[in-house]
Amino acid sequence: MNNGTTSLVHPEIRSIHSPDLEPPNVPADPFDCEIHFHAHIGARETNGEASFTFTVITPVRLAKSADPMWGRGRLIMPTFEWAAVAQSLAALLALSARPTWNEVTHELNRELELVEGVS
Fold first, then answer.
1. Distances in Å between the alpha carbon of 18 and those of 5, 45, 55, 64, 101?
2. What is the tens place of the pLDDT at every residue in 32-52?
C-alpha cells in the first residue's frame, strides 16, 4: 500500500580499496598525504553497482600545492585514518538515498567521481 511516501534507493559500499596503500598500513606521515581510492557502490538488495574514485588529502598536503584546484573528488581529513575514510563514505551514502538509482549516482557524482555506471 502506498501511503503517499516514495520508497528510496539506498546506496551501500560493495568494496573500497586504494591502489596507493593496503590496510592497515598508514602513510609515512598521516598528517601530510594524498591517497587515491576506488569504491564500488550499489543499491541495497540489487546486484548492479557503479565505480567511483576519490582522493583523501590532508590540509598540510593541500597547502603545499602551488596550483589552484577544484574540490570535487576530494575528502579533506586532518589526518589519514582508515576507519575515518570508511565512516565518511558511509555518511555520504546515507545522505544520498534517492527515488531512483540514476538519481543516487548523480548525487554521489557531486562529491565522488563516477568512473562507470551500473554493471
1. 38, 25, 9, 22, 25
2. 999 999 999 999 999 989 999
d(CA 99, CA 8): 4
46 in helix, strand or coil?
A: coil
SS3 content of the chain, % helix, strand, coil (to 5): 20, 30, 50
Contact 89, 108 (CB under 8 A): no
Task: Please enumerate in sequence order all residues whose Cβ is within 8 A of that of 81, keeping only pairs 6 or more positions apart, or say none.
Answer: 26, 30
Does the global pTM surpass 0.70? yes
CA distances from 90 to 14, 27, 44, 111 (A): 11, 22, 13, 13
